[in-house]
Design brief:
Blueprint: H1 4-17, E1 22-25, E2 30-31, H2 32-48, E3 56-59, H3 64-76, E4 80-83, H4 90-100, E5 104-107, E6 110-113, H5 122-125, E7 129-134, E8 140-145, H6 147-161, E9 168-171, H7 178-191, E10 195-197, H8 203-209, E11 216-220, H9 222-227, E12 238-243, H10 250-260, E13 264-270, E14 274-278, H11 286-289, E15 296-297, E16 301-306, E17 311-316, E18 322-323, E19 331-332, E20 335-344, E21 350-355, E22 360-362, E23 365-367, H12 369-377, E24 382-392, E25 396-405, H13 411-421, E26 430-433, H14 447-456
Parallel strand pairs: 1-10, 3-4, 3-5, 9-10, 9-11, 11-12, 12-13, 25-26
Antiparallel strand pairs: 1-2, 5-6, 7-8, 8-18, 13-14, 14-15, 16-17, 17-20, 19-20, 20-21, 22-23, 24-25
Helix pairs in contact: 1-2, 1-3, 1-7, 2-3, 6-7
């Protein structure tokens, strides 16, 4: 069974064979030799603080090139990495350290040894990566993924999408994000596919990146394809556009196709399974043919629909080992039961029809409303709060908050507290004050009433 160190060895073979090749393009270009040298320096720092097999290293607050080097260095030490979004707020990082048993923290400032309050599970210690997702209560939840599972997922994607070592992957999604990890990080590690880093919500740099001459692939989310409508776009080397993280609307797909002549191919996956399905059809127009259609299963992936609700269940070599907390459910006999429901057509294509969980999908990032509610309720002056998901044309979904508060508390106070405690995407875009939180006859929060009240308001953050 491959170990984390085997991932590092795989990278070094590619890097050593083509040492002067540019692997990362940004403000400065980074060659294979330079990235390998930086990884070796980080590995020395990790060695000095005792990182070795069984260690769990939190990677947080790193710019992209440093993230790649620190990740490779963690694998060189045969340890597991927890990739955290660079915008993760300090209180959230503290919860991750506490709940997932991180032993070390790597940031732009260096390496710090941690004293975990909880011992890490054997599953976590045997992982190459512990992916982060939000649990039903909003507490951080770790997904243990082995080196073998990472390689299997990357192999499925490379085979299905035809990703070669000569293709430049345009990186506008975070490398630490599960989608970015599978489509950007692992092709670089496995076969030296270079990445071009661009600011995700900057229309002009993003349009310029998509207009490069060399063969390029753009894994994006619906919001990014909408953003591209704000700048002139003249794709030359761009040969493949992939969309995941949130539902791809026919409007977004049609608009991009009309402007560029390039179809946006729907892609579906989860942090727990890696890639599941994608639109590999000749025309790439599945999203236009039927809303919610995400194509057929990737090679090596089996999809079934189970139960009366037609829940999407995934099997394959890339399915993760499980959650690091034993009490978390979802993994059964090597399969993962997603929170999505769907249907399969006579061509084997999956169409997503709904969700069974309360999590909200904001441009591909899963957020638990319970976490945001707890944050609001922790502020002095807030007497009650309810947070729900709302349809958002550009992000798929967004959050709305209804708050009962003392008269002295202002909306600016709520926003300041939220921004200090949570990542930016977890801050509700719409906040209203109510005299009371409406409830149903059974005493539960009346989400339908809240949604109507929020929809009637026009203020947003």
């Amino acid at each position: 069974m491959p170990a984390p160190r085997d991932l590092y060895s795989l990278f070094t073979r590619h890097a050593s064979a083509r040492p002067d090749r540019i692997l990362i393009s940004h403000a400065e270009s980074v060659t294979s030799r330079q990235l390998l040298g930086e990884a070796e320096r980080w590995s020395g720092r990790l060695h000095d603080v005792g990182v070795g097999p069984g260690a769990i290293v939190l990677l947080a607050g790193l710019e992209e090139t440093a993230f790649m080097a620190a990740l490779l260095a963690t694998w060189a030490r045969d340890a597991a990495a927890i990739p955290a979004d660079p915008l993760t707020a300090a209180p959230e990082l503290e919860r991750i350290r506490r709940d997932l048993g991180a032993t070390h923290h790597v940031s732009q400032e260096g390496v710090a040894r941690l004293e975990p309050s909880l011992p890490a599970s054997s599953m976590a210690r045997g992982a190459a990566v512990i992916k982060l997702t939000s649990g039903s209560t909003g507490s951080p939840r770790g997904i243990a993924v082995t080196a073998g599972q990472l390689l299997a997922d990357a192999g499925h994607l490379i085979e299905a999408m035809g990703i070669t070592s000569e293709d430049t992957n345009i990186a506008a999604i975070p490398l630490s994000y599960s989608y970015g990890f599978g489509n950007l990080v692992m092709p670089l590690v496995m076969q030296g596919s270079p990445i071009l880093l661009v600011p995700s919500l900057a229309p002009e740099p993003l349009a310029a990146a998509l207009s490069i001459d060399r063969p390029a692939i753009f894994p994006g989310v619906p919001l990014l394809f909408d953003v591209l409508g704000m700048s002139p776009l003249a794709p030359r080397g761009l040969r493949l556009c992939i969309c995941a993280g949130a539902p791809l609307s026919p409007r977004t797909a049609a608009s991009f196709l009309e402007r560029t002549g390039i179809p946006v191919r729907a892609f579906y996956g989860t942090s727990e399974t890696g890639g599941i399905t994608w639109d590999g059809s000749a025309d790439g127009l599945a999203a236009l043919a039927e809303e919610g259609c995400v194509g057929a299963p990737l090679p090596g992936v089996e999809v079934s629909l189970e139960g009366e609700e037609r829940r999407v269940v995934v099997r394959g070599a890339a399915v993760a080992s499980g959650y690091t907390a034993a009490e978390e459910a979802g993994f059964v006999d090597g399969a993962f039961m997603t929170s999505d429901t769907g249907s399969l057509d006579d061509r084997g294509r999956l169409t997503l029809t709904g969700r069974l969980s309360s999590s909200v999908n904001i441009a591909g990032r899963k957020v638990s409303p319970a976490e945001v509610e707890r944050c609001l309720n922790s502020l002095d002056g807030v007497r009650a709060a309810a947070v729900i998901g709302m349809t958002d044309e550009t992000r798929g979904e967004s959050l709305g908050a209804c708050v009962v508060a003392d008269g002295a508390l202002q909306r600016a106070d709520l926003l300041a507290h939220l921004h200090a405690s949570l990542a930016p995407w977890k801050v509700p875009r719409r906040i209203i004050f109510l005299d009371e939180i409406p409830s149903t006859s059974r005493g539960k929060v009346d989400t339908a009433a809240l949604r109507r009240r929020l929809a009637a308001e026009t203020s947003s953050t």
